[in-house]
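Recap from last week: sequence in, structure out.
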Amino acid sequence: MLRDAHVHMTRLPSFIETVSILKSKKVAAVSSACAPWEWPILEKLSRSFENIEAAYGLHPYEIGSNYQKDLEKCLDYLKQNPDSKVGETGIDRRFPGYAPKEEQESVFIFQAKVALEFKRPLIIHCVGDYLRLFQILSSLGYPSSDSPIHLHRFAPKKHLLEPVLSLQCHISLHQDSFKGNDLALFLKNIPEERFEFETDADETFAPKETPPEETANRLIKRLEQNFNHFRELLDSNN
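Predicted structure tokens:
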């Protein structure tokens, strides 16, 4: 079965029909709900379609003035859905609260601790300082075989290889991940089963008027392109 490791399914046009079409084509997806308004929608969707794996988190962009209450609500969804994942969560230099010990870091630490406590996969978003996130994870007790780290839309850089190996991270490859020359180094050092493929599709992926069949086909085509590119690189490095 083809599997999208990271998509924002509830933000796609006609997402219920799109999910139904994906199911008929044997395509599964991990759908991340990153804002409070998405959590109940994803819960209903994932309970209705077995090809949708839910992940509940609070994204750096979605941190508001009442983020402590939002985190408690997110915790409730994780408790009520024992098969769900945590995230996406992380830090992003483009948004407020990015500096050390500010809001983004507090929100990230809360979710990382929850993933450890609940023994759930942790989906990480980072625009900025990966090494800072890795240091935080190490201080919290990662790596953990019960709570694997999934680096969403990862941009491979040579200086990140050692901590990625140390933390036993899974790497989710988006089409942007293939830019640059350092991915080959990761392919040589990380087991193939720790690589995943994603579209990161959201409301920008297809216009609102796009028919569900076309949206589903776009997702499948993007996944197949990423997978084939990965296989070509893997073969060329063997």
